[in-house]
Amino acid sequence: MSTRWLTQPERGNRALIRLITWMTLRFGRPVTRCFLYPICLYFVLFSGGTQRISRDYLRRILGRPPHWRDVFRHYHAFASTIHDRVYLLSGRHGYFDIRMEGATTLRTVLEQKRGCILLGSHLGSFEVLRAHGLFAQQLPISVVMHEAAASNLNAVLHSLQPEIRERIIPPGAADTMLAVKERLDRGELIGILGDRVLGDERTTTCEFLGEPRLFPEGPFLLAGLLQVPIVLFFGLYRGGKQYDIHFELLTNSISLNRDRRSEELRPWIERYVSRLEHYCRLSPYNWFNFYDRPDDVGPSPSHV
Amino acid sequence: MTTPLKTGPATESSLERDVAKLLVDSLRLEMQPEHIDPSAALFGDGLGLDSIDMLEIALVVSKRYGVELRSENRAAFGSLRALAAHIAGNRTK
After folding, report:
1. Are A178 and B44 a contacting pair at CB < 8 A?
2. Which ipTM score applies to this complex?
3. Strand, coil or helix: what is A126?
4. How far apart (Å, rounded) are the C-alpha atoms in residues A251 and A256?
5. Touching check for A173 and chain B: CB below 8 Å?
6. How far apart, in Å, are the Cα atoms of A283 and each of A97, A143, A296?
7. Which residues have C-beta within 8 Å of that of residue A80, sequence separation ≥ 6?
8. B55: which chain A residues are within 8 Å (Cβ-Cβ)?
9. How confident is the model at residue A176 (pLDDT cuts 50, 70, 90)?
10. How does DSSP classify residue A3?
11. Over 50: is that where the pLDDT of A4 sits?
12. Is A181–B52 a contact, with Cβ atoms under 8 angstroms apart?
């Protein structure tokens, strides 16, 4: 029995995911959403490790010991956003009521034609921004993330929208940041999730909901080196068919002194974390960072 | 630590030394430029540089030599020697 289903969806069976995806498209959202209830109930009962992470987070955000119904609600929100990725990636945006707040902020930045880092998080749905932004709003968004091949779930989902593959920049390669620079130079948007450390990244420790947690410095360093703005985005799932996308300008540019970089980045990372906390409070069941744990804090591999 | 091998024309190895110094200065590497093995990988296991360092190298190389390093020039940032050779073949200043 898998107890790490939520944290490691790549272990899911590809044929099974295909079947579920097919059913999802064949029978439509209202019908297949009913299946999310027994699935989530199953995982409330049998997912030990993930549930500890969920409960730990819920206790901190709700300020009380979480009830099993809170865990269920948390899983259900997560399952809903994965289920909805099928519709978002296959272009069935009509199912959803997507509100955008701060869209003028993003438009103003785009008009400057200097590119922009869209800094997101594992809060809510990233797909609602990527698929809806890329295909319905025609925003030129590329995303720094591990390639679809690494995950059965992503492999199946991305096959619904093959163009999305060309817009994925795998992290951790020698030319990752050069590829990012080239797209920014063309005035495009680069989506990065700023709340999970990928491999040997440079990191800084910040307080998140009262506990120390590692955050990557990379996106902020990139903005400083290339002098591009950072716009924060949060794609919150509000239940039913409602998604709210929020954009906020974090900064138009970050100035960096070569010998005091970490100190200069820190206030920006703290500002990002405090906005993340704000949106966590707004949508407490939307936090889907089931992989990282607060006790992941260890020595930073940074060599600067 | 290995010392740089004296191979190729004198101008090339002097460019290699200049580039080594540029890397050490701009990335604040805790080593002497002459201690960089010219054939060691810059990225990952060799010199231990990451993707952001590679971006910084591209920025300083463009500023100093007028050579643009693009993501498709993968071979050019394989090692100090490859980087110096790429600069020698494309420099505008």
Report:
1. no
2. 0.85
3. coil
4. 13
5. yes
6. 17, 24, 24
7. A33, A36, A237
8. 177-178, 180-181, 222, 225-226
9. very high
10. S
11. no
12. no
At A238, the amino acid letter reads R
Q: What angle in degrees, to the nearest 10, is found between the helix axes of A218-226 and B51-65?
A: 10
Cα gap B90→B68, rounded to integer Å: 9
Q: Supply φ then ψ for residue A232, to 5 degrees.
A: -85, 145
pLDDT, tens only, A101-143: 999 999 999 999 889 999 999 999 999 998 888 888 888 999 9
Task: Judge whether A6 and A79 are in contact, CB under 8 Å.
Answer: no
| Upper half-sphere CA count for residue B93 (Cβ side, 13 Å) | 9
3-state secondary structure of A252: coil
**Which residue bears the tokens 């997507």?**
A98
Choose the closest CB to A225 out of B30, B43, B59.
B59
Indicate the domain borders of chain A: 9-292
The predicted structure's pLDDT at residue B62: 95
Q: Which CATH number, 1.10.10.10, 1.10.1200.10, 3.40.1010.20, 3.40.30.10, labels domain B10-90?
A: 1.10.1200.10
SS3 A15: helix
- Per-domain residue ranges for chain B? 10-90
pLDDT of residue B92: 87
**Exposed/middle/buried for A241, CB within 10 Å: 0-12, 13-18, 19+?**
middle
The label of the residue with tokens 């438009």 reads A107
